[in-house]
């Protein structure tokens, strides 16, 4: 893939080198710009390192579905449930929760699903040239995703999600227990119901994927600054300057892609956004003793089980609490217990645990937007459960916005001032 040659290059800073920021930086570079990633810890080390690795092409199901309001009392009572809220954090979280509930009406969910579908329908195809450039093909497995259910009740409830997908042309094949064990012999007979999405791809190493993309970016002349952005110096005209723990920097354009930590930056730059975090956990099992062919979702407990280079990763759940709250690793233990229910011979020898902060908007739609306040500032954050999936497409859209080309999809649903 060639870098476009321009008469005059724009100097662009991307704040945050997660999968979203790194894809934005690489796409902007390929479009002929002079790009710098600023990340305090280096590319890929945030939420993007610990996810379930699924590139869920065409996925369009938001977190807040009709009837979610009835689940809120349970979320508050059960700190180990698949979806929970920390009591202490509730007052702070109320505005986000209200919008979350407002976004869960049948009519809103249909519109959100339309927007997510448009964003994610070409997820793998859009990633493809970036993956080739990064020589990261070996990190992808195209064998689909299998959701399994032990409970007929949960499977019946899931029909709503499957219909949201199918109504938009997404392939979902319903399976019985025999078909499930034909696909995945290690799953036990308790997995009675299944849904197979053949178009899903997974990565066997999400951290390395971002790092290889960042390496390709650097090899093509991009800069990576290991600095912490502390503030922005606003100017009456021109581009705000970026103040880090090391220095002040000026650029022609700025992209804010700092994941769950983007909210104060957006506020400083003139846009208050209801960005919060849904914290997730993973358990990495280096000696699981289990061979899975593809990524599996435990549908009753809502978490992924993905075969990766370093072992089997159990990853998921939603805990609404602050980015600074201490982890509750009992939630990770719970993932392990639930996985043992469907993979009886699973070994936890050498298991390690991780917690990460999904950057989440209450309507499950990311912010991919030019700032209405500063025309040189752009936002790419809030991708929630689908940041890996939507990263390359986000990079493509941000690149078009900066080049003043119309993006390939309607981006009104992703505007920063939509609330
Ligand atoms: C358990 C779990 C499972 C998941 N599974 C999937 C999945 O299977 N598929 C999928 O598509 N998505 C999944 N996700 C979601 C996905 O991981 C996130 O949406 C995605 O990683 C967000 O990427 P990001 O680049 O926006 O944020 P991050 O990866 O968090 O990157 C933000 C970067 O900004 C930097 N930063 C923050 N503040 C500053 C500052 N002041 N100065 C400089 N740098 C700063 C950080 O160091 C970090 O590197 C999962 C998430 C979790 C938690």
Detailed description of the structure:
The protein has 419 residues and is of the alpha/beta class. It has 2 domains: 11-50 and 208-274 and 364-414, FAD/NAD(P)-binding domain; 54-118 and 139-204 and 275-360, D-Amino Acid Oxidase, Chain A, domain 2 (2-Layer Sandwich). It contains 11 helices and 21 strands. It has helices at 19-30, 72-77, 90-102, 106-120, 123-133, 152-166, 177-183, 206-219, 263-268, 330-342, 387-402; strands spanning 11-15, 34-38, 54-55, 83-85, 140-141, 145-149, 173-176, 193-197, 201-203, 223-225, 229-233, 241-244, 248-249, 253-256, 276-285, 295-298, 303-308, 311-320, 352-360, 367-370, 377-381. Strands 4, 6, 7, 8, 15, 16, 17, 18 and 19 form a 9-stranded mixed sheet that branches. Strands 10-2-1-14-21-20 form a 6-stranded mixed sheet, with helices on one face. Strand 12 (241-244) and strand 13 (248-249) form a beta hairpin. The longest helix is centred in the C-terminal third of the chain and has 16 residues, at 387-402. The chain starts with 10 loop residues before the first strand and ends in a 17-residue tail after the last helix. The mean pLDDT is 95. Flavin-adenine dinucleotide binds next to helix 1, strand 15, strand 18, strand 19 and helix 11.
